[in-house]
Amino acid sequence: MTRTADVVVVGAGLAGLVAAAEAADAGRSVTVLDQEPVQSFGGQAYWSFGGLFLVDSPEQRRLGIRDSVDLAWQDWTGSAGFDRAEDFWPRRWARAYVDFAAGEKRPWLHGMGVRFFPVVGWAERGGYTAQGHGNSVPRFHITWGTGPGILEPFVRRVLDHVHAGRVQVLFRHRVDGLTVQDGVVTGVQGAVLAPSDVTRGASSSREVVGGFTVDAQAVVVASGGIGGDHDLVRAAWPARLGTPPEHMITGVPASVDGRMIGISQQAGARLVNADRMWHYVEGIKNWDPVWPGHGIRILPGPSSLWLEATGARLPVPLFPGFDTLGTLAHLRTTGYDHSWFVLNQAIIEKELALSGSEQNPDLTGRSVRQLLGRLTKGATPPVEAFKEKGEDFVVASTLGELATGMNRVAGNDLITETGLREVVEARDREMANPFGKDLQVTALRAARAYLGDRLIRVATPRALLDERDGPLVAVRLHVITRKTLGGLETDLDARVLGADGAAVPGLYAAGEAAGFGGGGMHGYRSLEGTFLGGCLFSGRAAGRSAAAAVG
Asked: What is the pTM of this model?
């Protein structure tokens, strides 16, 4: 079957939906294609925590946070480390995005009904100098409704266009190639897959039952990255992060397979910065998995003691929540694929949050009543469920029992009670005074100077072995695949560029497939809250540019 449209969007995730809505708003006919069934409408953004990077927002100002474009740009460039010729467009995308985050982004979203949790989070704290990696101030704004909440207005806009006849959304349509005539991308062709009734995010059948072609004047690739395919992740793994782990868990559905990146290259697109990636080191196995190898990321506060697999403490400033890729690079030198958090019940109750919409039913469901439950004694129900049922958790009343349990979970005898006691008691001695030399203890005390951390994020500084705060808990941590930071090179109009630096006529890219803009606007490292925002920003640019190019 051959169809026609002004614009084809490949991928019904957040970036694709934004692009489709913007193109249809401009009066263009749009066809959205996705290989997954309708149950997965919205893609991986649905599973996200909904964090967005904003600069000098009303939420920040209410909490006494002084932010500015200059400070945000200082933090972005200090983290990105742009140092390649291929960073020409990524750097320009980054600057445009920081300006967007400080200007139009919040009112644009607010006008569509998006609201934010009033306490701004502080992710990627850095711990280096003012010009180094990390956020100088809290900028992580949690969407009221989490991932589904940020998807909601764009799903609504697209469906409104569907009802008006301007947009058609075709699920179970897998793009296998771009059609090119005289160097111009003129559409797509691919396979119709068998219907599937799997639950959202679960792996669906790849049985082919037919074929299709869509002719168009513009094609927007918004198909995501490579995080669901560990072989692709390992193939792109950079030497600066050591050797890739033999064992990883997966933070995205299997459909995040990178196919369209390779297909776009075959049509003349240039892939840049493929060795830049963002994987977390605080992953735990989901006791109730949706997709193969399903992992959940812990969003840690700064109090947990972080140990290597052998029980040695991680070096400064590799504390929980400070430097994701710095910690990953260090852990890859240890010879083991896992590490440990050691904490207690008081820290779990205050600090241990889990990333994802399904792990935060109060925020996702916009329930003030449930949210107030976070202020009462006890961890959130999802955290308690992991503590009870998750295979990575060890709960004990003594350090000896904890060491035995850690070895049982890891299947080795690397942790000794003596070694564990030395590390824990040395840390606890630092709690006797309001000053000391342990920089993690200094950092957590400083964090409580921020009202948001003191209210809901950072536990009262006390000894780990304080009897009031038991039992003791250890959590085995895995590397969890997540984001592709490199991608298809694009100019500021989201036009895909070829090897000669010229635009490939008719081809656009947005979201993770474009490295969230330009082929890698984050550079080497992310400031967090910038992935969904990158989908919004690049999807908007791609949709508007594609619509403008239609004759």
From this structure: 0.97
